[in-house]
C-alpha cells in the first residue's frame, strides 16, 4: 500500500547581481514521502509578495497545528518605530524622474553621490552630518545599499564626482532634454566666501557677499532657457567674470553637442573678446552694456535720450542691435535712494555742527575732511558738497551735477548680434530678464535652502564635488517648488513635514523583521499627491551599518585633508 506524508514549508534565497542589485526568491514548497523516497515540489512562487505577507504565511505554517496561538499578537510580534521615510522617498523619486539617479549610476559610488544630493536637500551640513542623517532616515532601504559607509567614503566620493562630472552632466542633460537641445543658455557667476584659509581655490577677489577681508571661490552656473541647471564650475577666488566664459563656450559645443545657441550673460560678463569667441564658435549673445557705454552711445548720437521710454525700442549700429528702455519704477527707486542719502547727510552735518559748538577746541577743517569722506563713502560727492560758515557746516546741492547723475536713471541697453528675423526686440528683452532665474538659483544655493557655504572641504576636487552636489540638489528643489506652489508651503516646510513620516519595524519572533510604511496623514498625503508620489507599503530590511568613524574603533585613523 502506498503511503504519502505531506509537509509544507517556505524557502527564501537572495543573490546579488553584477550591478549590485539584490534579488529575492521566496517559494512555497511541499515535501512528501512516496514509496519510501522523499520528494519536494514547488506549490507557489511568493517572490512578488511583500515581506509581511510572507512572514504571515511562515507564521501560520509554524503554528498550523494550533492557530489559536496567533490570537495574542504581542506574543509573536513586536512593533517599533523605524527610520524616517517620507522625505527621503519623495526626494529620491524626484531625483529618479529628473534622471539624476541614472546619470550618477547604480554602482556604490553612484549611490553614495545620490545620497549626498538627497542629504543636501533634506538637511544641509558636512559629510559627517550626512552619515548621521543616514542613521535616522531610511537611506539604506530606499537606495538599496549593499554595504555601509562613513564620512571618509563621502569625502572620497566628492573626488569621484569631480572626476566624472562631465559624464554625469552629459547624461543629466540628455535625460532632461533628449534630442531637443536648447536654443538659449543663461550664464552667470557668483562668489562664496570662506571662513578658513586652507581651501585650495581660496583667493581674494571681488566679493559679492560684502565680506571684506575674507577669501572666496568663484562659482559659475549654466542654465537652459527655463532656468534649469545644466552645468556648474568652480574657479579660484581671484578669477574675473569674463575669463570664465571661454570654458562655457567649449562646454556647450563639445559636452552637450549644441551647434547654434545664444548665450545670455550679465553686463561685465560678455565683452568684445568674449563676443569674438562666441562668433567663432557659431554662437550668438545677449548682454547689457554699462552706464558709461550708454553715455558714449548717446554722445555719438547712436542713441537719443528722448527715445528712452516704457516701451522697448531698438536701433542697429555697426553690426549690433541695441534694445533699450527706461524703467520708471527703477528710476524712482534711484531718486529715492539719493534723497535718502541726502537726508542722512543733513542729519550727520547737524550733529557735527552741534559738536563743533559744544567743543570750542575742535577743528572745523577736521570736520570738513570727515564730511568729505562720508560723501565719498555714500557715493554722492559728485553732486553734494559741504561748506563751513564759521563753526557751522551746511550741505550744498550741485543742481547741474545732480541732474547729470540722474539723467540715465532707470535706463538700460541690451546688446545682441541676433538678427531681427530670429528674435524681435521684445524677445531679446524678455530673454535677458530670464537671467533672474539664475540669480534665484544662486540665492537658493547660497543662503536660502541649500547653503553651499560654509565649505567643510579643502582640496580643489572636494570643493568642486561639493558645489556639483549643490547644483544637483537645486534641480530637485526647483521641481518640488513647482509642484508645491499651490499648497502655500515652502520646500523647507514640506520636507520637514514629510520627514515626520516614519516606518514601522515589525519583528516576528523567530522569523525576522520587515519595515511597513503606515498610511500618511491627510496633510502628508496632499504633499505626496502634488508631486505624484505613492509610497510603497513595505520596505525591504537592509542589514547595513552606517556609522561615523568615531563609532568604529577599528577604523579610527588619521584623516587625510579633504
Question: In a few lines, what is going on in this structure?
Answer:
42% of the residues lie in helices and 22% in strands. It is an alpha+beta fold. The protein starts with a strand and ends in a 23-residue tail after the last strand.
Features:
562 residues, alpha+beta, eight-stranded mixed beta sheet, four-stranded antiparallel beta sheet, 22% strand
- Tally of helical segments: 19
Strand neighbour order, sheet with most strands: 7-6-5-8-9-14-11-10
Distance between the termini: 78 Å
Overall residue-averaged pLDDT value = 86
Query: What proportion of the residues is helical, as a percent range?
Result: 40-55%
Molecular shape: elongated
As a whole number of angstroms, the C-alpha radius of gyration is: 33 Å
User: What does the largest sheet look like?
Assistant: 8 strands, mixed
What percent strand?
15-25%
What would you call the structural class? alpha+beta
What does it look like?
- The strands form four sheets. Strands 7-6-5-8-9-14-11-10 form an eight-stranded mixed sheet, with helices on both faces. The chain has a four-stranded antiparallel sheet with strand order 4-15-16-17.
- The protein has helices at residues 51-62, 86-98, 100-104, 108-122, 127-136, 139-143, 151-163, 165-177, 245-255, 272-280, 291-299, 328-358, 364-378, 399-406, 425-433, 435-448, 460-483, 491-498, 522-531; strands at residues 4-16, 22-34, 37-45, 77-84, 184-193, 216-224, 229-236, 262-265, 284-288, 313-317, 320-326, 384-389, 392-397, 411-416, 502-508, 512-516, 538-539.
- The protein has 19 helices and 17 strands.
- The protein starts with a strand and ends in a 23-residue tail after the last strand.
- 42% of the residues lie in helices and 22% in strands.
- It is elongated.
- 33% of the residues are buried.
- Helix 10 (272-280) links the parallel strand 8 and strand 9 (284-288).
